[in-house]
Amino acid sequence: MKATYDARSDTLSIILRADAAVAESDEDKPGVILDHDEDGNLVSFEILDASKRVTEARRIEFETVG
């Protein structure tokens, strides 16, 4: 999994499966783009205008449980 924030475009991208090709993209909700592979599995998503939608777009915490 990989997360990137582009300050110029104010876009937060989360890549769940780097080895999967995107076959279809949907703007499920305004400003949230979901990318699916050919089997319909979610492989990544983007949040547009991230600084307005995310508490701190330039900072991320990652935690594993169990």
Structure description:
The chain is mainly beta and 66 residues long. It has one domain. The chain has one helix at residues 50-53; strands at residues 2-6, 11-15, 24-29, 32-36, 42-47.
Discrete helix count: 1
What's the pLDDT, averaged over the residues?
92
Helical residue percent band:
under 10%
Give a quick account of the main beta sheet: strands, pairing sense, barrel closure: 5 strands, antiparallel
Strand content: 35-45%
Query: Helix-strand pattern, N to C?
Result: EEEEEH
The value of Rg in angstroms is: 13 Å
Span between termini: 18 Å
Number of strands: 5
Task: Give the low-confidence spans.
Answer: none
Shape: globular
Total count of domains: 1
Strand order of the largest sheet: 1-2-5-4-3
Task: Offer a concise description of the structure.
With about 70 residues, the protein is mainly beta.
Set out the fold topology:
Elements: E1 2-6, E2 11-15, E3 24-29, E4 32-36, E5 42-47, H1 50-53
Antiparallel strand pairs: 1-2, 2-5, 3-4, 4-5
Keywords:
66 residues; mainly beta; 1 helix
